[in-house]
Amino acid sequence: MKTTLLHIKNMVCPRCIDAVRSLLEQAGYRPTDVQLGQAQLDQSTPADPASLAPMLREAGFDVIMGRADQLTEQIKTALVEYLEHLRTARMPLTTSAFLTDRFAATYSHLSKVFSRTANLTIEKYLIRLKIERVKEMLSYNDMTLSEIAEHMRYSSGQHLSNQFRQVTGRSVSEFRRDLMPRRLSLDQLA
């Protein structure tokens, strides 16, 4: 059975998967598999990605047409998974080893494509991801900064604090004092 594979930008969570599946079904398509960053349609509903773009864009998603853009979105998805790997692995892989294993490509190639299409290095994007996760953890107010630093694999609370200020322009304590701290959605990171 021939299928159409759509690469979709800004899918970052299980609710995004449900939303894209629902949008496609409402538009008369039959998705056979929807995952972060992609949707597969069966042959009975051939799709023109350009015609689906306005519908998806209205919901905050976008169809990715070029190979470099597709790879960049796949790397972003893999980096979200890498954060979980960091948290759970006893001896976590380095970012480059994780991505190289995932994509069977050199880190140099992945880095060049990502930097060119995202206008940001993989390392800076990962730092932004980590800081958004730290913001989430800080907003729950149930862990100390040292515990969060350990959880996120920072070398110390001070290292986390310095990086937090560098990325957000605010200290951790300023962020904690704010009653409604501003967090970014993952699609706003790059």
UniProtKB/TrEMBL annotation:
Pfam families, sorted: HTH_18
Entry keywords, A to Z: DNA-binding, Transcription, Transcription regulation
Gene3D superfamilies reported for this sequence: 3.30.70.100, Homeodomain-like
Residue ranges constituting the HTH araC/xylS-type domain according to the UniProt record: 77-178
TM segment ranges: none
PROSITE patterns named in the record: HTH_ARAC_FAMILY_2
GO molecular function: DNA-binding transcription factor activity; metal ion binding; sequence-specific DNA binding
Entry protein name: Helix-turn-helix domain-containing protein
Organism listed in the record: Hymenobacter perfusus
UniProt lineage: Bacteria, Pseudomonadati, Bacteroidota, Cytophagia, Cytophagales
